[in-house]
Design a protein that fits this description.
The chain is mainly α. Helix content is about 70%, strand content about 0%. It has 8 helices and no strands.
């Protein structure tokens, strides 16, 4: 019993481990797709498609990534563990993440206020300006 307790306290905390940016982005997109209470088929397709396009993944790889991202999202209490993995990326990569988020938001031709709020919060946390976020929003809304 003592060994079991010791292993709990010596195990590295999952929130302290560095997360791969690809998994962090996928977890944010999974959360975003579900934030309005339902994940439409169009949102699911956009989520998978944008991950495949941006990271060069095939269908099997993207399904595994989304499965793990879903698990990570369910275990998380906030966005910190995801955004901390993204804040050190180049600005162009951060802009691409926000573009991906808008792509998922507008996949079902609707922009729920919770989706809008989440993109705003993530953009702020990873260091994307309000102007850039708004420009990307307008571009993706027209696409």
């Amino acid at each position: 019993m003592f060994d079991a307790l010791r292993s709990i306290f010596t195990r590295p905390d999952a929130t302290m481990l560095s997360m791969e940016p690809k998994l962090a982005v996928a977890a944010l997109l999974v959360h975003l797709a579900a934030i309005d209470g339902q994940v439409s088929e169009a949102e699911r397709d956009a989520l998978e498609g944008t991950l495949m396009d941006n990271y060069g993944l095939n269908e099997t790889e993207v399904r595994k990534l989304v499965e793990e991202a879903t698990r990570q999202d369910q275990e998380s209490v906030d966005f910190y563990r995801f955004t901390s993995a993204l804040s050190s990326l180049e600005n162009s990569e951060k802009l691409e993440i926000i573009r991906m988020m808008w792509q998922v938001v507008f996949a079902d031709s609707r922009n729920h206020e919770l989706e809008d709020n989440m993109v705003w919060r993530i953009a702020e946390l990873i260091g994307v300006s309000s102007r850039d976020r708004t420009v990307l929003r307008s571009q993706m809304a027209r696409a």
